[in-house]
Amino acid sequence: MTERSFLRLRRIALSACLCAFGLAQNGTASVKVPDVPIHTLLLANGLEVVMAREGRAPVVAVEVWYHVGSKDERPGMNGFAHLFEHLMFDGTRNLAPDEFSNYIVRDGGEDNAYTTVDATVFWETIPTADLPVALWLEADRMRDLRINQSIFDKERSVVEAERQQHFGNEPYGDVMQTLYAHAFTVSPYRHMPIGSVQDLDRATLSEVQAFHDTYYVPNNATLVLAGNFGEKQAAGWIERDFGSIKGSSRAIPRNYPKEPPQTSERLVRLYNDVALPAFVEGYHIPADGTRDSYPLRLAAKILGEGESAWLFRTLVYKRQMAMEVDSEGDFTEEPNLFFVMAVMNPGFTPEQGEAEVSRVLNRLKRGDIPARVLERAKNETLRDLILQRDSPHRCAEALGYDAVVLQDPYLYNAVVSRFAQVTVGDIQRVARRYFVRRNMTLVEVYPKVAAGQTMRKISVVVH
Amino acid sequence: MRRSRLVIILALMWCSLAVARLPAREFPPFAPSPQPPTVPIPVVRTLANGLQVAILARHALPLVTLTVAIRTGAEADPPDLPGTAQFLASLLGEGTTHRSAQRVAELVDGAGGTLDTGAEWDDSYATLSVLSDHTKLAFDLLSDVVLHPKFSAQQVERVRRQTLSALDVLRHDPGYLADTVVERMVFEGTPYAHPEDGVEQSVRLITPADLAAFHARFYQPANAVLVVTGDVTTNQAMEFARRYFGGWKGKGKFSQPPVRPQPAPGGRKIVVIDDPGAVQTEIRIANPAAGRRSKEYAALSVANQILGGPAENLLFGALRRRRGLVYGASSDLVCYRSAGAWEAKTSAPTSDTIEAIRLILKEMWELRRHALGESDLGMAQNYLIGHMALEFDASDKIADRVLDLMIYNLPFDYWSHFPAEIRGLTRQEVLAATRRYLDPRRAAIVLVGNAADFQQGLSSFGSVRVIPLSRIDLAAANLEVPATPEPAQTAGQN
């Protein structure tokens, strides 16, 4: 591979210190998360390639990550990234609409795509014999996607139908949207990737084309391969299919408005067609991959994962006031939110739930975290990391995320030790810093009052 | 019909190329037809008490997963107490006669584990997955959870409350209503017609004694299987199985209830659940299908792939690709122990409801009449065979496939022969199975949406029964709360 002048191979021999740590040095667990050997290439046109041999099934996962998500949509363009997720299936000079998927699925493969706030991901999981087909197909639509008015119009209506399906009839469907729209004032994360019908309706073909020319270029893309395949052979196919695609000379815009620090609590009340009242609290947190993100991830485990998690134990189990609770960090490339949500049982109010959540968060802030609780959170994290190695698709997902959003594919192995090093003090520190009321946006949802009685959907907004 | 459409598409494609004066079209490289993967075959042993133990060692990752499956699920719910199997399974792990619920949760989470329990139609299960340095604990804990559940009043009430809350949420979910009502119609006269999770009325009535009775009757070693996968040796797994499950006492041989044939529907039935606030209509069109052990299972799998399976299929082509009416359109083949359903589903904007139904029925007719060409058959076969590699590429998927074998008493090497069975099917066999089951004239059609906007157009499909959303009662035989909401005396509806 190295003899090809235009194919520079960056092969990093992983030093022993980055290799599998497990958590043995903390004396907690004796299992080791096996390292996955990772190879990267950089093509002359700027396309990054990340490859990992994983698993024994004759299967390979191929993913193309375009580093463009809803946070790259300027005002008035909400939904463009998601629209392209659809347009990429609508044909090229060589392929008719949806023919792409037919080639993948005909031999039992699976393919799909998704759009996040940070990236748009196209993936195929295929029997290994089909690897050259998948590479050819991805290169083909990276090279010359066909965009015209009728395809644009058709996909716009499909995106609107998708939006209806997700948010039209779903109970609690608009709660998270409301949270993000109020927690952020200028951050592009205030918009959801699903997109705005108004923005899409007024978008012109030339605007859409310009968006494509900026972001859908090899120097803004990362190709990930994980599974049971020959890396040398794959590198040859990659160079053959992707090597001649022209990169763009323009720099990719990355200047996102910085959200000013929140200075007081915000409250929104919704009256929806739901059976039970619910609430979600969102706290501003720093970007993923930062030092604080690791203790925050463990805090999410302590609060919300499994039936021994603190929120479940108090709100669902002991007090029986909530039907369901969850806590998750929305970890992304730019600072985002950590949220706690609960659906209340009949007879309980969100206010009662919030008071209980506050008591649980205070416990974290006091550092009242027994060693076995930290060990549990770390073991649950180990399990997650092991499961990332359990199938080609999951491996490619995690690798792509590390390579594109965190800008370092080798984190895939290195992250094991970052979690191992987190102490109770770290968790206490981040809880005190971020889980405070002035940093919080609260959305409460109540069942619509009585039939016939109209009520403004959003009744109170306190800034 | 399908051929001519293809010709037109091809012609248009070449025209557009000519106009654009682009160089000739290129094609993806050739890939050979998919080869079936080598499927791991479990080692299966039977303990003296009748418990089957199926072991599949995989040492690549430090994880061990155990499942105990009881070969009885929601299909055995007492007729007046639907939801019993699910209620009971939800309580597994919520305290045993030896350990409190909190203790069980601490042990599971501390082992980096997950405990998942539930009831499907034909089985009840508890799956415990742990980091492999906790393997012994996993056997110990899982046997305790399955053999000695406590049904304490506190936990029963907690699960009852949670189930009632969940049912309350589901009552507002149009997709759930559509699925539940169409299954009620298709499975009428079988043990699969009631809502799997029960209904409000029954969940309120189930007592700890009911749960204990279900447990005593069905949770027996001779009616159970233990599936072990992951980083453990066969010998080690057998030793732990004997130690922790060997003392499980049963009542000897267990026999499944006899299978009765699924009644054939008389004619087309249309039910609309009217939700005036809906902007989308959930659409389900279903016929009965064969049971899981039927000889026609493979042929029906191929036919379902052609109608609405994951690969190129008639429904997606008609509703989404050519018309952009809907986001998704598909069909599912569900085959239980003694009955099955073949169900087309989509969700369409209210104004396109009639057109979506028309297109689904049209594609069903196409498949039934003549649409099945050799290339359709070959494509569906390639898909099903090629996809097998993906069904065995992760531990949880492998464990699920082994469970299929054990729950339905299929041969242990069933998956090794499945590709050849699929490949050997002829066009006539697939068409015969299609014609036997897929019948638009006898389909159950269920719509959940704003009836005012499409009810008129609906009459051309047959007689329609409209039930206002506010009057839906999944516990009632006729799905409706009694017309006159008088007090108790008239409540005995039928």
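qc> Confidence is low (pLDDT under 50) at residues 1-28, 451-463 of chain A.
qc> done
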